[in-house]
Amino acid sequence: MKRKQVFAMALAVAMSISMLAGCSSKPAETTAPNAPATSTPADNTPAAPEFIFKLSNDSPAKGPQADGYEYMASRLEELSNGRIQVDCYPAATLADKAANLEGLQLGTIELTGLSASDMVAYDPIWDVFGLPYLFESGDQAWQTCSEPEIREVFAKSAEENGFIFLGWLNVGARDMFTNKHPINSVEDMKGLRVRVMSSPGLIACMEAFGANPLSIPFSECYSAMQQGTIDSVENATAVIVSNGIPELGGCYAQTHHFVIPDVLLCSKAAFDALPADLQEAVLQAGRETSEYWFKTLWPAATEESMEQLKTYKDVVITEPDLAGFAKAAESATAELVAKFTPDQKAIYDAINEVKVNF
């Protein structure tokens, strides 16, 4: 009887250990990046992974973005037959956006996801996404940007700066959340201290709306609003909700002023070090993640987060008159486009030509 109990306990421990394998959110490891694991044992024990990839981002550890990155990690491990292990580091536990991109260039971080507008620091062509009301919806943006003539422009820009473009991530339209007063028209934007990304287009647009834009990491917005550094944020519903912003109370306005897709990237240094079959696994996992995010993940997240937003008693939801926003946006767009380089103007024209099909 005792031997049976010991065997059962050992089996339970082994099963528990096996269930912990795969992508997991954990603190940064001190081992060398991408170091191959130990050699395969002589018996029938499954081989340890040949490569360990770190998927680092600044999105919350729980929520639709975390679910999307977990999907990417899971698919890459499956498509590589376990030869690539993916460890997830959400909520800037490993690095913030800027450090993630630097890590990808160096090959010390292998994967990340971030807003397309964050890429402006490497190539101004990405600032086309900072134009207000460029797209009508996240669906239109994803479909337009997935067309080869659009996708390849940004994929080329990414590779020239040390990144492999894996796919667009639909994150829908961006709205306003403020703890000041309800927003029913563009006049209500006057004087609001709004957090925006460090994009010339985004900053110019908010200024055209009459707001005072400030650039800080979104992960710091909760505390910044508590401390009064800012009084407003702009982002997609699911992002605002998953970051806990409505807990502070305030007003949510469905302005839909920006539609900016996220982008999934791989380190070119890490990618080039892989054999051809594993390179294809990375590309395939990226394509599948992009499709999943577009068709399944984000539509459900948008609906669920809006329903959750309605449960907050201290949050007022408004549907502003967008005529004033559109008028202000037209003037901001005209000024920005007038300053575009030939390459920026070419992709802007191409997007406008393609998007009418969706």
Produce a short descriptive summary:
With 358 residues, the protein is an alpha/beta fold. The protein is built from twelve helices and eleven strands.
Characterize the structure shown.
The longest helix is centred in the C-terminal third of the chain and has 34 residues, at 276-309. It is built from twelve helices and eleven strands. The termini are far apart. The protein has helices at residues 2-19, 64-79, 97-106, 138-146, 148-160, 200-208, 221-227, 237-242, 268-272, 276-309, 323-338, 342-355, and strands spanning 51-56, 84-89, 111-115, 163-169, 173-178, 193-196, 212-215, 232-235, 250-259, 262-267, 315-318. 44% of the residues are buried.
Structural domain count: 2
CATH top level class name of the largest domain: Alpha Beta
Which class do the helix and strand fractions yield? alpha/beta
The total of beta strands comes to 11
Superfamily at the CATH H level of the largest domain? Bacterial extracellular solute-binding protein, family 7
- The span between the termini is 68 Å
Largest sheet: 6 strands, mixed
Provide the residue-averaged pLDDT.
89
> What best-fitting shape do the alpha-carbon axes yield?
globular
Uncertain stretches of 5 or more adjacent residues = 1-46
How are strands sequenced across the largest beta sheet?
7-6-8-5-9-11
| CATH topology label of the largest domain | D-Maltodextrin-Binding Protein, domain 2
- Report the oligomer: single chain
Count of DSSP H/I helices: 12
- Assign a percent range to the helix content: 40-55%
Cα-based radius of gyration, to the nearest Å: 22 Å
The second-level CATH architecture of the largest domain is 3-Layer(aba) Sandwich
Tell me the β content.
Answer: 15-25%
Order of helices and strands: HEHEHEHHEEEHEHEHEEHHEHH
